[in-house]
Structures are given as structure tokens and as C-alpha cells.
Specification:
single chain; mainly alpha; Arc Repressor Mutant, subunit A; 6 helices
């Protein structure tokens, strides 16, 4: 059994979960990831996009072009909500719609060159914010974080 002690301002494991090393680690990682994302998002003001629009633009840049229905699934919103977001990105010149050549009933959405540039600028700012947070970490600490990130990334594939 692992003793619950708050670490670095991170909340202790929810009582409904088993008191073992796996769940303690998962809890700490979850809480730290949320705080890290919050810190990184603080630099998004330069993108002039709210969270849902920035998230959708990211999907379009890294996974697009995609049908509107698939975008709604990925962003976990209703089709009308995704249509509204796509329309907003399109009006800003960051996304474009076109009919699928293979099936004219399907509308594909993709990021424009301006959308890609904006997302990359935002991503660079976020990565810079995370790098600032990690400044002063030892090579061993950076290696451990890199290994953890690679492990998590591989399991998310």
C-alpha cells in the first residue's frame, strides 16, 4: 500500500482508486499534465483563438483533411457545434472546406497555409513555455522526462 501524501501541490489519489504504485503514479501524472497544459496554454493569447478553435485547428494541421463528422467525433462535440467551429476558422482564413473527389457527398475540412503557420507559432510558444519550466533540470531529470513522454506517446498511438 502506498501512503497518500500531497506532492508539489498535486492532489492525492482519489479514494475510489486502488492504493498501489500504478494508481499513485497515474494520479500524479494526470495532475501534473493538467497543470503543465494550463501553463503552456497561458501563452496562447498570441494565437487569438479560444480553446475549442485552437484544438480543432491542431487536429486539422496534424490529421486533416477530415470530414466534418470525423472532426465532431475527435473533438467530442455535436455536428452542429463542429460546423460552427469550422465556419469560424474558415471566416478567419485558417481552414477551408472542399468536396471529397471520391464521394461528392462528403465535405472535407483542412487547414490553410495561414492556419498551419498560426498553429506552428502557437506550438513554438507553448514548447518554449515548457522549456522555461524545465530550465535548470539536470540531464538525468531531462532524460527521465523524455523517456516518460516517449513511453506515454507510444501507448497513445
Amino acid at each position: 500500500m502506498v501512503k497518500q501524501v500531497p506532492q508539489h501541490g498535486l492532489p492525492v489519489r482519489p479514494e475510489q482508486l486502488p492504493a498501489d504504485e500504478l494508481h499513485e503514479t497515474a494520479n500524479l501524472l494526470h495532475s501534473a499534465a493538467l497543470r503543465l497544459l494550463r501553463r503552456a496554454r497561458a501563452v496562447d493569447v498570441g494565437m487569438d483563438l479560444d480553446g475549442p478553435r485552437a484544438s480543432l485547428l491542431s487536429v486539422l494541421v496534424f490529421a486533416g483533411p477530415l470530414p466534418v463528422s470525423r472532426l465532431a467525433e475527435l473533438e467530442q462535440v455535436s455536428p452542429p457545434a463542429i460546423t460552427k467551429l469550422v465556419t469560424a476558422l474558415e471566416a478567419a482564413g485558417l481552414a477551408a472546406r472542399r468536396r471529397d473527389r471520391g464521394d461528392r457527398r462528403v465535405v472535407l475540412v483542412s487547414a490553410t497555409a495561414a492556419g498551419r503557420r498560426l498553429l506552428e507559432q502557437g506550438r513554438a510558444a507553448r514548447v518554449g513555455a515548457v522549456a522555461d519550466l524545465l530550465a535548470g533540470a539536470s540531464p538525468a531529470e531531462l532524460g527521465a522526462l523524455r523517456s516518460a513522454a516517449e513511453l506515454i506517446g507510444a501507448r497513445l498511438d
